[in-house]
Amino acid sequence: MSVTLQIWRQAAADKPGHFVEYKATNCNPNMSFLEMLDVVNDDLEKRGEDPIAFAHDCREGICGTCSLVIDGKPHGPHEGIASCQTYMRSFEDGAVITVEPYRAKPFPVIKDLITDRSAFDKIQQAGGFISIRTGAAQDANALPIPKQDADLAMDAAACIGCGACVAACKNAAAMLFVSAKVSQFALLPQGQPERDTRVLNMVAKMDELGFGNCTNQYECSAACPKLISHDFIGRMNRDYIAATFRAACKDKPAASTGGA
User: Fold this and answer.
1) Where in this chain does the entry annotate a coiled-coil region (predicted)?
2) pTM for this one?
3) Which of 27, 89, 99, 226 is 20–30 Å from 137 (CA)?
């Protein structure tokens, strides 16, 4: 099969970008989308042209690095699948496929299809951790956890931080990512000591970095390759309101009356 690619090319963050057309011929329908890009890059290098820059790592839908917008949809045409798990058999022979980077102010383009998503790392560093000792693997059953809570925590922890939720949202909101990272700890006993500071700090950092507000359109969960539920956003909002209330109501130190 053969396809025509409209690829976004941009030399650097401070350079203008534009779409360039490439032909991908003799594609095996069973090759992945990234393997097809590898073949196109091999041809470009043979002609002495600059290859298309795109990010990838595991190519197994685990790392979230392969973040592409394919035909206007983050990660491509399928549901619950990352770009690296999209195969050429998903497209018609002779199809015209548009490939571009994530479009969001907090994700500036580095080159071509690669964006800087370190903003997610900064949000995680603001509170996405626990500081208490939890023991080793053999201690896992020392603290019983209701199955429903454990299952929900695991669902939230499935987030791979790819940024598809931001790219799909018209407001470039990071609420699905942040709510998943908040909830995976808030649902477990080990995450309770820092529960309030975690949600307050991570939401504050999200706002500081320029992500937009959630308007409940749910494009985020529709584009998520791990099918993270938007229900976590509601859970985080409730935690945030409660944490804000508790922070405002904390007793202030009693004023000193002085002494002789």
Assistant:
1) none
2) 0.91
3) 226
